[in-house]
Amino acid sequence: MIFSFSLIFQSIIGGLLMGGVLSLVAIGLSLIFGVMNIINFAHGALMMVGMYISFFAFQFLGFDPFLSIVFSLPIMFLLGAIIQKILIGPVLNAAHINQLLLTLGLMLFIENMAAQIFGLTDRSILTGYSTSTISLWGASISTIRLMASVLALAINSVLYLFLKKTITGRAIRAASEEKYAAQLVGINVNRINVIAFGIGSACAGAAGSIVLSFYPVSPHVGHIFLIAAFVVIMLGGGSNLMGVFWAALIIGLAESLGQVLLMLPASSAQVVSFGILIIILFFKPAGLFGVVKQ
Length: 294
What we know:
Strand 1 (133-136) and strand 2 form a beta hairpin. The chain is an all-alpha fold. Helix 3 crosses helix 8 and helix 10 packs across helix 11 (270-283). It contains 11 helices and 2 strands; from the N terminus they run H-H-H-H-E-E-H-H-H-H-H-H-H. 70% of the residues lie in helices and 3% in strands.
């Protein structure tokens, strides 16, 4: 099979755009892991809730899915803060298996509640620009995916500035680096945990609003993005947010090119990302941007 430049270029652009959106999902999950050292299996389910929020905001209020972030962000932050305060907080010092089972149970509970309320039917939306494209060097680039990626990168940038420039952001970073030292200098770690889980959930909700513009929502849709986010985090070095961002772009690019060059169906694209992950971890167990702790 002969591959044209325009086909390869289109695949590269498409992969980078998808990687930009995936980075928002993974960074939210990475933030929770970095601050609380807990693996949140419910992250994909929270993303699904964000998708439903935007779906009904579009259906009943006429809000564009991108604009509906004004609903999903605060609602998901509040929901995440409540979950952390009531459910996650009490088990932070428990065995890791207890934490894993709690978040896994929370995922199943949220998904089954959604299935009971909304049914299992896929729901999608159609806007005036859903099918529009931009031509560049012979490649056809989806306008809606470009907008989705730009918005995801904008949210990532705001989060990065928040963590770097604000007092609360620096407190979150301190708690992530060394929890007990943070307590010694007067940081309320319990409060930081609530805020961090709320921010991570808000990132999941915002990603859900963005993804809804080109991906249908159903109660179990979060599984796909959760698995991809775990791969990105492992490749990026765990709690290294910048590493996670670059890893998301790498995974998005690899899966897109894999579909073209290896002629894989979309359903098998993650074979490429898992293959890359296995190879990288074999040579660099901490991930591409991680550091092995002595």
